[in-house]
Amino acid sequence: MRKSTIRAIIVNIVAWTIGFIWVLPFIGLFMTSVRPYSEVVLKGWWSIIGAHFTLKNYYEALFNPFYNLARGYMNSFIVAIPSTIIPVFVAALIAYAISRFSFPLKSYLFLTLVLIMAVPQQMSVIPLFFMLRDMHLLDTLQGLILVHSSWGIAWIAFLLKNYFDMLPREVEEAARVDGASDLQVFFKIVLPLSLPALASAAAIQFTWVWSDFFYALVFLISPKNYVVTQRIAFMKGQFYVDWGLLSAGSILAMLVPLILYAVLQKYFVRGMVGWTIKG
Questions:
Q1: CA 50 and chain centroid, separation
Q2: CA 59, CA 230: separation in Å to the nearest integer?
Q3: How many whole angstroms separate alpha carbon 256 and alpha carbon 111?
Q4: Within 13 Å of residue 93, how many CA atoms lie on the same side as its CB?
Q5: CA distance to 56, 58, 60, 235, 245, per residue, from 64 (Å)
Q6: The domain that contains 169 carries what CATH number?
Q7: Which of 28, 29, 142, 271 is the most buried (most CB within 10 A)?
Q8: pTM above the 0.85 mark?
Q9: Domain extent at residue 15
Q10: Do 143 and 273 have their domain in common?
Q11: How far is CA 202 from the centre of its chain?
């Protein structure tokens, strides 16, 4: 047996082992979500013999008035969609300007974007709290959208700038010779060519906003405004934890990002490969 064959077998075994270890918690989460509480506690999620499967936990998580994960879903969509579209669009304009044009303090602007990326969320929460309060946006979904959008602009602009640097400029120059303005070049040439980078940036930003708990916990006070990550906290009882219900809520919460990545997988991989090559 050749060394290359042995090496390939070892690599495959290691890869499958790592993959199984990574997937195992999700298997346990799903198996727990489709079984009654008593059965999970007494037998464990791994016991399949005599198991009774049910979707009651999912129904309770979505439609029970106390948990009302469906309302959390709606609030999360209201926050996540504009918090993705706004920073991607604004960051694309900023990144294109930095990549293609010369203007005063250009290098300092780019350095500012890098420094903003290095600021921890915890350092910004107190000033943001008082800013939203003074703007009468505290405990509103609009305020949370503003916070997420402002945080997303910096890192998206940083990554898109690197991607724009990689694009050939000949097509843009030819369009300008034909009389196209800078905005026409940007919208009709650069953006279509940058679809993989835009899609991957949008997927990452959407997932980050959807999964955020810290900012939502600080800035959203009224239960009617709670997003999906906050609603899951309601499923943890004071005296006991219904693991089936909590697992069902967790599965439902991660379902949207999983679907998004499955739909945008082709663009996501192409965009990330482009950024990696440029870096």
A1: 39
A2: 18
A3: 34
A4: 8
A5: 11, 10, 5, 11, 11
A6: 1.10.3720.10
A7: 271
A8: no
A9: 3-54
A10: yes
A11: 8
